[in-house]
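Q: I'm a student working through a structural biology exercise. My instructor gave each of us a protein and asked us to get a predicted structure, then write a short paragraph describing it. Mine is Metallophosphoesterase. I'm not confident about reading structure output yet, so if you can add a plain explanation after the C-alpha cells, that would really help. Here is the sequence I was given:
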Amino acid sequence: MSKRFGMKKLCAGSLLLLLAILVMISGITTSAMLKTALASGDEIPAAKLPQQIGLAMTDDPQTSISINWTTIDTTLTDAQVKVWEKNAEESTAVTYEASIEKRTVVESIIKDENGQVITEKNFYSATLDELKPNTEYSYRLVAYDGETKITGEVRNFKTAPASEDPYTFIYVADPQVSGFHAKAWNANLDIAKEMFPDARFIYIAGDLTDKTPNEGQWEGFFNQPGNEQYNDKYSGSWISELPVAATMGNHDGGPNKDGADGMASHYTWLSQIDGIPVTYAFDYGAARFIILNTEYRADEDLEKQIAFLRQEVAEAKDEGKWTIVGMHKTPYSGGDHMDDADVKLLRQRLAPVFVELDVDMVLQGHDHVLSRGLVKLNGYKADVTEKIGDRTYSAKAPGHAPLYYVANCGSTLKFYSPLKDNDWISEYDPVAPDYGFLDIDSAMPVGHALNPLGPSTDDEQEEANPNFYRAPTFVAVTVSEDSVKFDTYMTGFDSEANTVVKDTFLYDSFTLNKADVDVSLAPDKDSISADSNGTVELSIAAKDETGEDIDLSNAAITYQSYNDDVLKVAADGTVTAQNRPADDVTVNIWAEVNDGVNTYISNILPIKVDVVPPARISGQDRFETAVAAAKKYYPLTSTVILAANTNDFADGLAANMLAGTLEAPILLTNTDEIPAAVDKYMMHAGVKNVYLLGGPTVISEDIEKELVDKKYTVTRIYGDNREATAAAIANKAEELGGQLKDTAIVVNGYAPADALAAGPAVSDGMPLLMVNRNSIPVSTRNILNESVIKNIIIVGGTGVVSPVVADELEELVSGTVVRAGGIDRIATSIALAERLKLPNAVMVGYNGLADAVAAGYVGSIEKSAVLYTQQEQLDKNADAYLDSIINEDSRVMIMGGTGVVDNSVEGYIRNKIMPSK
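A: Happy to help. First, here is the predicted structure for Metallophosphoesterase. I'll explain a few features afterward.
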C-alpha cells in the first residue's frame, strides 16, 4: 500500500495501481477502499489497522512511554504492543497489554463502506515501562479480529538519554487544527522533520485542535487516511513518530475541562496534581520540564499547582538543571490577550512565583504571535539581550527574570494583533506599557523596534496588504548544560491551495546562556512600621559558579522597590517607609548588579509594612470608596454588581446576598452615567459580567446599552418595588448556586441604615427580606413560604418593624423570630453585632450610608460587624462594644473618608488598639 496511507507494502504493484484508480474515480477515500495484506496474502481492511498513533511523554521518558491509537473497526479485542530493541530480532519482543474502549465520536470526516460518516471508534492505550535510556526501540500494534491477528507495521521510538548531552526538541504552539488549516499543520511538521531529523520530541503549548470533542479535527491533526482533509502532499507523519509533550489549552479541555473525547482520548498524559489533568514533570537531558494547566485557575487549583512547581523547581535547582515551565495561557506575550481577566490573574498569581523561584523559561501559546522577553517582577524587561547579527541574539540569564516565549501558531488558523493602547494597564498589574517587557513581537509592524525585519504576523492586515501571508511556525530548541538556543522558523503557506508561498526562513535566533553569578540580598529584619521612623538594612553578596565570593566594591548596584510610594531603598541599602498605606502591605525589593559587562538580579525580598489599625478604605467620593474596596479585595474579577446611587439605596440594600454568592464587589453608579473610576476599574479588573440592581428608572437603559456595547454580559435584577427586588435578588442568588441559610434578615425597606448594617450576614448567605412597618408584602410572604428559611432576625426597633409584623412573621416560619434593634442606627448596629458575634468591626459614618453598601461584603470577608459612628466622636456604646472585642488578633477598619469618619475618631480607635498590639 502507498506511503500516504501509512500501511506496509506487502501486495503487488498492480493492486496499488487499481486502488489508486478507484480513489481517483470516486473522489472519496473511504475506509472500505483502503486495504493492506499480510504475508499470507490475506487482505485486511484498513478499518482494522492502527491509526492516529500518538506517543505521549511520561514523567520518566528515559524508561517509559505511553502509546495511544485508534481503529475504525470497533469489534477488535485483545490489543497489545510488541516492543523490542531496534538492533535485536523481533522474536525478542516484550508484550504490553493495551486497554480498549469503544467510544462514540462526533463530527468525524471519515465515511464507512456504505458512504456514511462513522460514529464510533476503538480507542487504545498502553504505557511501556522498564525500558533502557537513550535506546531506540521498534514496536508493533496488535489486536485480534476473532482468531485473526491484526498486526500493524513496524514503528520506532527512542527513549530519553541519561546524560546531559545537547539535544534538540521542536516547540510549536496552537496548531488548533480545524478544516483545511490541518494542511498547514501537516506541512509544518514535514518541514521541521526535514530540517531537524534528529529532534528528540515535540512540545505543543496547547490548543492541539479547535474543538476537542470534534473527531474530524483529530483526524486532520494526525492526517488520518480517509478524512476529507487528507493531505497526500505533506504527510505530517512526525506527529506519530516522536514523543509529544503538551499542555492543555482552552480549546483542549472540552465542557468538563478534562479533555475527554479529544485530548485525553488520543494521548495519555499524567495528572501528577490531584484533580488537575495534564500536569506532570519530566527530566530530559539538562532540563526539568514542568507542565501546568492554566485552565484550572480557581484559588485551590492554583495553590496546588504552585506547590507542585515549588517542589519540582527545588529538585531541579539542586541538580543544576534548567527549569522550563510549559503552559498555555501566557502572562506576558505580544498579543491582544494581555488584558483578559484570566491572563491578568496568571500574571498576579503565577508570574511572581516564577520570579521568586528563578524559573529559567516559560514556554507558552494562546496568543498566536511570536514573542519573547526576560521579564522582571515589576513587569519590565531585563535589558540584557545582545544583538549578534540580523535576527541573531543572545543573553546571559540575569536570574529572577524568566524568559517568556510564545511560539506563534503551528498552522494557519489565526494570528493575533497587539493591543492598540495602554488603557488596560492598572497600577496593580505588573506590566510595562507599549509591550516594553519584550525583545521581539512579530505582531508589530515591520520596522518597529520589536519587529525590525519582519514580517508582521498580525492577520488584521491581510485584506489591505496583498503581500501578507500566513506563517505556520515552529521553534527548534537546543538544550545543553550551559545554554538553550531557540531557532524560530516560519513558512508562508496557503492552506486552501496546500502550497508554500514563502520558503521557510529563520525569523529569530536567541541563545540564553546560563548565569555564572548568584546575587543574594538579605535584610536585618523582615518588617518595618509605617507609624514609626524605623528602617531595614540590606546586605548584598555574590558568588560565582564555584561558590567563591565575588567582590562587589566596583559593581554598580541598583535597588528596586515594587512600590516606591510605600518603601524606598537608598543607594546604601537602607529601606524606609515613605507614605502610610491604608492597611498592612508587603512590598518586594530586589537588587540589580552590573559588573560592567553583565547584569544580575538578586533574589526577591518581601518586606512587610505594618500599619497600626484601624485601616481605612476611602476615595475622593462614594464611588471611589467603593472602587477602593473592590481594588483591595477583588483586584481581578470577572463579575461586578452595580447598585444605583439613590438617596436610600433601595435596590442596593440586598446586594450583598449576590456579592457573597458571586464573590464579586458592589460598585455604585449614577442613574444615567457610569462614574469614571468605576468604568476604569471594570476595565482593569478584567470584568466580563455586570449585574444591574434595579429597574430603568434608577439605572437607565442607556447605561445598559453602553455596557452591552462594551461587550459586557449584562443581567438586570429588579421587581415592581424594593421589596420585590430584594426577593428577586435572593432568588437569583440561589439560582446561581448560593446556599441560602435557614435564617433570614428582615428589615423595613425604608430604613436603609438597618438593612446595610446587616450586610456581612447577608453576604454570608442570610437572605435579606423587606417588610413595611405594619405589613408584609406578598413577595416577602412568597419567599418565606417557598424557601428553606426557618428563622428570622428583625433588624430595627419597633418603630420601623411593628410587633404586629413580628407576630405575623412567627406564623410564617417554623423556627424563631428575634429582634436586633435600638433607639437609632448606631444602637441597632451594635445590637446586631452582639447577636452575630463577629470578632472584628468595620466603622461607617452615621451619614455615610453610601459607604455601607460595600461595607457589607467587606465585613463578610473580614469577619466584621458594620458599626455606625458619628463623624467626630465615637458613640459611648460603640466605644464599649469595641472594648469588648479588641484583642491582639482583632481588626478594626474604617470605610469612607474623613468627611464621614474624622481623623480624630481614627486616632481614638488607634489608641484603644495599640496597647493590645
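A: Here are two points you could use in your paragraph. Residues 41 and 869 are 95 Å apart (CA to CA). Confidence is low (pLDDT under 50) at residues 1-41. It's a good idea to check both against the output above yourself.
Q: Great, thank you!
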